[in-house]
Amino acid sequence: MDSGTLAVPGADLYYEVRGSGPVLLMINGSNGDTALYAGLADRFADRRTVVTYDRRGNSRSRLTGPPEEQRVELRVEQHTDDAFRLLRELTAEPAAIFGSSTGAAIGLDLLARHPERVELLVAHEPLVLGMLPEPKQWHARFDAVCDLFVTGGARAAMDELCTLLGVAAPPEPAAEMPASIRELLERVQANVEFNFSCELRAFSRFEPDLTALRGAPLVTAVGAEGVQTLLYRTTALLAERLDLPVTEFPGDHMSYAMRPEETAEALAPILERK
Question: What per-residue string of b and e applies to 214-248 under the rule 16 or more CB within 10 Å gives b?
């Protein structure tokens, strides 16, 4: 595994590269970093150049703009531009992309705005609240989570967000954990604060360009947890709007990190058939 840093406007992006062959870019959801994709990335390194990266402001991708610009709400388009610049740096060919949650939202925006750079997008449980009935009510609920972060702290806000999404909250880092796991959770914990301060409001209002996405090389995917989770519903509604089937992956929203072997088995035939 090799690592590097790419300077982009306002940030230095930390990225990792495994394997060789056509590029497969994996885009994290909120709070995550390259370590969450390590197991899945390893399983494709024998046939793909697998690229993972920390999104701007998260983990090792530090912000470089003036201090007064570093705690403002980021636009989804800024994350999309980062992914575009990273692909342009690493390959001249279209790349396959796997993105989950807000990472899938970035993938949808990248596919719509730069279709020439995307061989195929697998959008796993994208956060697209605009697909839901009465999205303004959902915007208000996500805004309330961000307000709770200010008044009640990161743990309370994360618990409330996970309740809204219908997913388990990440555990707290503990001394008895293996060092690599503890360090990852410490980075995730720091990223949680950045997410609530600078990302979540914008992502909750992200509207995919359905016109540009219709007929595009796109696979919508969900975990096996069922319709009780919010992101299962948003994915199914997006697929319905685009006349696409929904592919079910094993496990839940974090299956790519917690069950990488099974996720790889489900993802491999999708990438091979293109």
Answer: eebbbbbbbbebeeebbbbbbbbbbbeeeebeebe
